[in-house]
Amino acid sequence: MRTALDIYTGFFGLRERPFSLVPDPAFLFWSAPHRAAFAMLDYGILTRAPITLITGEVGAGKTTLIQHLLASLGDDVVVGLVSNAQGDRGELLRWVLMAFGETAPQGADYVALFARFQAFLIERYAEGRRTILIFDEAQNLSRESLEELRMLTNINSGKDELVQLVLVGQPELRDTIRRPDLVQFAQRVSASYHLPALDGRTIQDYVAHRMAVAGAERPVFQHAAVEAIQAATGGIPRLVNQLCDFALVYAYSRDEPEVGADLVRQVLDDGVFFAGGRPPAAIRVLKPRPIRVMDWPLDAAG
């Protein structure tokens, strides 16, 4: 039975798909902004920053950085990861307890849940271990939830805070934290970094890196093709992956050994690349030119 890997990997001499949308540490590309973001994460952890803030557009590579951070931490660190938590402050504490593998009994009120979490932190501190609580997709947290998280950072033992927070989210999270009624929260953010979109030169290196990791022994994407991909995606890695993947499928279907700018333009013109919800005007950055309609082979659909 044919699989997704059979679509074009053999044609280009690849061992695996180079542009999967699933984060894979083997394909981690250390651009200058990603190095800076990880350095700030590391700095926040080592200096026991009460709150570390990392933001970036959807698909900028934030989750990949968090996974790399988790893999680099030692046994002296206890980590709880919460993704897309919602609800009131009592529900928030339930999410937190479950992130650390602690039970949160149904019917327990806020005071009981807070006492349970505080006891957990004290136990870890007595063992000589640090506790880090990471919130992914933190832009979805309400103002009340953020204020509750600030209160958690007040749990301490003398001069040592018992829990460090790492908030990871989209750019609007920074705007929320800058609100006048969250000034106390903002004052506890000791480490912060915003991941920008990648520039054209970096995208060239990014595409070449992923192709090489997948097994490519020759250049497949022409320079002009990558320029077109960068323009259409705005330099967002996840969107770059999606458009590159489509371009490889198109090149395979047309029996073309390289991906050129015309082929990328054809992918855009055919409307198969939705650009992660970006409006059509955002991707119509290339002047269209007449291109023959792609002739799909019967076996391309699998």
Automatic annotation (TrEMBL):
SUPFAM superfamilies: P-loop containing nucleoside triphosphate hydrolases (SSF52540). InterPro entries: AAA+_ATPase, AAA_22, ExeA_AAA_ATPase_DNA-bind, P-loop_NTPase. SMART domains: AAA. Pfam families: AAA_22 (PF13401). Residues 48-190 form the AAA+ ATPase domain. GO terms for molecular function: ATP hydrolysis activity. It comes from the Bacteria. This is Type II secretory pathway predicted ATPase ExeA. It comes from Cereibacter ovatus.
